Amino acid sequence: MALQEKPLRSIDPIWDRICEEARAAIAQEPLLGGMVHACILHHANFEGALAFRIAEKIASPAMSEQLVREVADQALRDEENGTAAAARADLVAVFERDPACHRLMQPLMYFKGFQAVQAYRVGHWLWNRGQQDLAYFIQMRVSEAFGIDIHPAARVGKGLMIDHAHSIVIGETAVVGDNVSMLHSVTLGGTGKEDDDRHPKIGDGVLIGAGAHVLGNIHIGHCSRIAAGSVVLETVPPMKTVAGVPARIVGEAGCSQPSVTMDQLLGVRGSD
Q1: What is the mean pLDDT of the chain?
Q2: Is the pLDDT of residue 151 over 90?
Q3: What is the pTM assigned to this prediction?
Q4: Which own/partner pairs from 214-220 qualify as long-range (CB within 8 Å, at least 24 positions apart)?
Q5: Is 2.160.10.10 the CATH number for 167-271?
Q6: Statement: residue 272 has pLDDT above 50
Q7: Domain 14-148, what fold?
């Protein structure tokens, strides 16, 4: 007699760890039990919990939480689009790079940078499907809820970490590579009223410091480092550090993966 086939239980170490952390959090602080159960433990998987959290944060009287959640669920189930895979990479990036992040559940529950990027990814999925008006609604609500404005047509790679995540602006034709890190008040903007390809192209592994503005259709080479407060108006070669207003090359990137090490200190020469 042929053996009866049985489905194997899926193994998801990220989700399993988030659930373990959630149960530990409830044990430590019972007052959070209802919220933690609603946001994490009532869901079968990471994607379901993320869709719930996105809907909870950006729903409005104009569009109910249930409707937003259904849209987010569709986006996260679309494996060909890669929205869920990118969200998982973003989660791990925040956990590994942000020294204030000690548990995988923290970005999902508390970090507006992670939450805003995931809502943007839903809007980008809608944009690519031709549902521009719904994508604009998501953009509007992300801006209102989180203070972060990412155009749904912008292309953002996986493994993005935005620390503190206040006043981030990423324009319509901007491209952000994989494993990029940026701090608050970063602008990837245009330089005028042109309506063609007008925004920066950020390579893989780039670190962008707080308050930096990268303007125009320029390229920032992979694994480069942009110092805080800089205004970058010209293309930057790979693996360089730029600083100043306007920014100039001041040295090498200092390491092979600046976006991972998050080292933002420029070398300072001692006095003669």
Answers
A1: 92
A2: yes
A3: 0.91
A4: 214/186, 214/187, 214/188, 214/189, 215/187, 215/189, 215/190, 215/191, 216/190, 216/191, 217/173, 217/190
A5: yes
A6: no
A7: serine acetyltransferase, domain 1 (1.10.3130)
